[in-house]
Amino acid sequence: MNVQEAGEAARVSHGNNGLSVESAMPESVRAALIQRGHKVSQVVGAYGGYQGIMFDPRTRVLMGGSDVRKDGLAIGW
């Protein structure tokens, strides 16, 4: 994934009540987690925002990504 794709990917969080997954997580993945014994719940808005900068050492290019779920931007120099 590039830095934008990584920020847009469905998220999973582990806590005392099991795994919380975003609605974009495919049902097949949720079912596989349950089959492996995980307690899985679907949540909305439980995750923070994401802005990231990736540096490619080969090309020396900075690439920015920003979470579409929140307001923000990635800036690098």
Strand fraction: 25-35%
CATH fold description: Glutamine Phosphoribosylpyrophosphate, subunit 1, domain 1
**Top CATH class:** Alpha Beta
Name of the CATH homologous superfamily: Gamma-glutamyltranspeptidase, small (S) subunit
CATH architecture: 4-Layer Sandwich
The global form is elongated
Span between N and C termini? Answer: 22 Å
- The count of β-strands is 5
Query: Fraction of residues in helices?
Result: 10-25%
Count of individual domains: 1
Please count the helical segments.
2
Strands ordered across the widest β-sheet: 1-2-3
Poorly predicted runs are: none
In sequence order, what are the helices and strands, one letter per element? HEEHEEE
The radius of gyration computed from the alpha-carbon positions, rounded to a whole number of angstroms, is: 15 Å
pLDDT average, as an integer? 90
User: What structural class is derived from the secondary structure elements?
Assistant: alpha+beta
Q: Give a short account of the largest sheet.
A: 3 strands, mixed
